[in-house]
Write a structure and sequence with these properties.
The structure is a homodimer. The first copy, chain A, is 35% helix and 24% strand. Chain A is an alpha+beta fold. In chain A, α6 packs antiparallel against α10.
Chain lengths: 330, 330
């Protein structure tokens, strides 16, 4: 068990060298204080989220360190996007193995720096510790929405349309590609899927459109089927989607054509970091236009009805049932 | 590598059973959404802090789970106290081994519940993950201070008095007692030191007094000597304290009488979670009265001067020098 002072001095050096240059917000105080501070934007609610990623669980230990840093930020950014929130900043608790070298740390901080800039999400603080276990990156992120406007999961109403951003299933297929469990694809298709697993593309650009129009939304981290089922459950409604309408990338279409059973991976595999949401029928067109304008595609995949549960139909209108996955728990 | 949907359903069950009952703040939405929200108090700055504790590094794997939970909260609460901030709430990312049982989790949540109540610090959310490594508890906590009044480390001025809350060195001696490295003590003395290591007693009761009177403050996690040296460095001043004035518990006095070399452990060992602070001479009396009224003892241990560095003198006025510890890095 390391003594705190030994650990403390190591931590101080790490922070000064690698993290302090990233903490340019005045409230971060150059990471030289016990805590940071921020003046909350007037008339806003704060949106709060914490999610961690762990080596060997959420990423491969050999993944590039900059991508690990970006993934840790982006799984949280994705939640803010789904809630219609603008990022305000984040804290990071980093547990590192003793033999993690400066090359890894420098690359990790490059990744943080890239996304601090790309998402206007400043670093406010955190801590680093040594761990005998895998690298663990715990991010706590906070954002802002005009008071009372955070988009909830529990807002879907009978008659709403169900929509998703981007394309579904790429990351889960990318994980399979990483494990050499996919049928033969072109190099370009394989690279697309691998990249989608390695680096989520959170839809923060669509946050304002979601806040303006969506009746309910959540980010898809555990698979479209399971996550949409959760949204329907907390909203007290039933959902029905058509698998054929679910937007797929060319790469996912290629994989599915070669192995039709992959539809289960696509719909239940997770790590999409797209957004599934509902919208009143009479707002759907304006919603799609606003999202398009923000550069995020929105596709209608089904409808909300009275009752409970989620039904997924195939091309022939038959109900799809999956052997496992998030489907098992509702 | 676990698939996200398998992990997701396990996480959902854990959250619903153990954590949801703790999340009674309306903004936590019963932990049934992607994120939580809070309306920030009017006219306040938010104070932001994240600190993690890891089994085998910051606590013993066999420590009672409720104490682990409380320690994770309290190391963060202590920072809020030092900054003069009132707790608003926290997020927790919990990485658990697969064989952690429900008994452990239930006790962990009992610990959270106790301190949610004791410190009026509601749970807003977080996540649980499985890890092949040690239990890791990452807390992100946020508090509030009237705008512009967060107590900084960088505010000490030449002529100020240096003061500390409570007693110093107990936790570091408690860690030594735990490892059977202490001279023989009475059972009551040993129990006192062990308890001070196991469960920090953060000085949140003194937060308002600190905000009203202190020119600078920080919580002592890495040893009084090293932490006060940091405070002096960022304030651009010199500090001088007298070891004889440093307040000790009866147990620490007993240990020190039996083994005078333990003065190094006491002053550099860390895990105190007391507060070291500075105050203008003409405010010292009012500060002490306000802190006393809040139930937190404050002891003057030295003075701030021009220059740099920290000098610690012993009974004879000789400079104390330590072989290692936080002293090594300034």
């Amino acid at each position: 068990m390391a003594t705190r002072d030994d650990h403390g001095s190591t931590e101080d050096r790490l922070i000064a060298r690698f993290f302090k240059p990233l903490a340019t917000h005045p409230g971060a105080l150059g990471l030289s204080d016990d805590a940071a501070f921020i003046k909350p934007p007037a008339g806003c609610d704060l949106v709060l989220k914490a999610d961690a990623i762990i080596g060997g669980v959420h990423f491969f230990p050999e993944d590039p360190a900059d991508r690990v840093a970006q993934k840790a930020m982006r799984v949280n950014l994705s939640d803010l996007a789904a809630k219609g929130a603008r990022p305000l900043g984040f804290l990071v608790s980093l547990a590192l193995q003793r033999d993690v070298g400066e090359t890894w740390l420098a690359a990790f901080c490059d990744g943080l720096k890239a996304d601090i800039g790309a998402f206007s999400c400043p670093l406010f603080g955190g801590d680093t510790d040594r761990t005998p276990g895998p690298i663990t990156v715990s991010v706590a992120m906070f954002g802002a929405v005009p008071e009372g406007t955070m988009v909830r999961r529990a807002g879907a109403k009978s008659g709403d349309k169900i929509m998703v951003t981007g394309t579904i299933g790429d990351a889960a297929l990318g994980l399979k590609a990483r494990r050499a469990e996919l049928p033969k694809l072109s190099a370009a298709q394989r690279d697309h899927l691998l990249a989608r697993y390695l680096l989520p593309q959170p839809r923060n650009a669509a946050a304002e459109a979601l806040r303006m129009y969506a009746s309910a939304a959540m980010d898809i981290s555990d698979g479209l089927a399971g996550d949409l089922a959760k949204l329907c459950r907390v909203s007290g409604v039933a959902g029905e989607i058509n698998a054929v309408k679910v937007p797929l990338s060319d790469a996912a279409k290629g994989a599915l054509a070669a192995a039709p059973a992959l539809i289960e991976t696509i719909l239940t595999g997770g790590d999409d970091y797209e957004i599934v949401c509902t919208v009143a029928r009479d707002k759907a067109e304006a919603f799609k236009a606003a999202s398009d304008k923000a550069g995020v595609s929105l596709t209608e995949i089904g409808t909300v009805g009275a009752g409970e549960g989620l039904v997924i139909r195939d091309t022939q209108g038959q109900k799809l049932e999956f052997a496992h996955g998030s489907f098992s728990h509702f």
